[in-house]
Amino acid sequence: MTPHEKSPYDSFAWFYDRYWAVPFQEWQRPALDKLLFSELKPGARILDLCCGTGQLSEELAARGFDVVGIDSSEEMLCFARRKVPCGEFLCGDAADFTLERPVDAAVCTFDSLNHLVLPGAVALAFQSVHAALKRGGCFVFDVNTPTAYGRHWDQSACQVSDDHAFFLRGGFDAETRTGTTMITMFRLFDTWQRSDVELQQRPLEIGEVESLLRAAGFAGISSYRAPEDLGMNDHYGEGRVYFRACTSLKEPDEL
Ligand SMILES: C[S@@+](CC[C@H](N)C(=O)[O-])C[C@H]1O[C@@H](n2cnc3c(N)ncnc32)[C@H](O)[C@@H]1O
Question: pLDDT tens, 97-118?
Fold first, then answer.
């Protein structure tokens, strides 16, 4: 999507920030402690790709890192800018961005890369991240593999509060390999306002991710299945895999 297209996350940002951002960030901290935080030098400049409402960016800034966030939803970015006034937040497409200054590391979490459903988009995102990293810089991210779109995806939930209500339905179409989350929200302003959002995801296989990373020039690629390798269970962990991949320390002509 281009930065000028409206993102489905725009009308969903308040809901995301209220219900999803904090629990996921709390849950994934052990993975980031192991794969990212322990490796970073003080004051490092970090790209938070698909930064959403800035929950991780806020933690990075609190740990003293310099943050640049990219997301395709202006409304999600409004929350991020409020949480991290010292951060730099840009509206852009993960599959087509360049940074003026390179970063020491990049991170992209909460199955954001599964949102890149257009053919070739994940490969382009890896190329953009590779180009944005300094030599020897690492990219840490998670993806949902096909297992994630099983039992817990195919569920529904609803909640009714005094000033808002929502209905959420998930589903997976095996033929098109598309996971869908449909959310209908009602919010009370002067009158009740309704908005409907449909989010789509595509599962990514471990081998597919590894070969796309290699094709983009990454080396030192490691994968960690959340439950088995990181001891991170519960519904977030099912079928979720974290990756760590680095750019070479050598100049391209030395390789
Ligand atoms: C599940 S949220 C994760 C947000 C954040 N990383 C977190 O951990 O809370 C997915 C995010 O990806 C963003 N996104 C989806 N497609 C994108 C694209 N093509 N380029 C940039 N951001 C995108 C959405 O706007 C949304 O903020």
Answer: 999 999 999 999 999 999 999 9
E strand segments, the chain: 45-49, 66-71, 88-91, 103-108, 133-144, 156-160, 164-173, 178-188, 192-201, 219-225, 240-246
Contact at 8 Å (CB) between 147 and 238? yes
Residue 250, number of CB atoms within 10 A of its CB? 11
- The reply to whether 128 falls in a domain is yes
For ligand 1, the distance from its centroid to the CA atom of residue 40, given in whole angstroms, is 23
How close is the Cα of 223 to the center of ligand 1, in Å? Answer: 21
Inter-helix orientation angle 206-215/121-132, to 10°: 50
Check: CB of residue 202 under 8 Å from CB of residue 231.
Answer: no
Report the Cα 157 to chain-centroid distance in Å.
Answer: 22
Q: Reduce the DSSP state of residue 130 to 3 states and report it.
A: helix
Residues 162 and 128 reside in one and the same domain: no
Tell me the pTM.
0.95
Q: Ligand 1 in contact with 94 (CB < 6 A)?
A: yes
Is the same domain home to 190 and 127? no
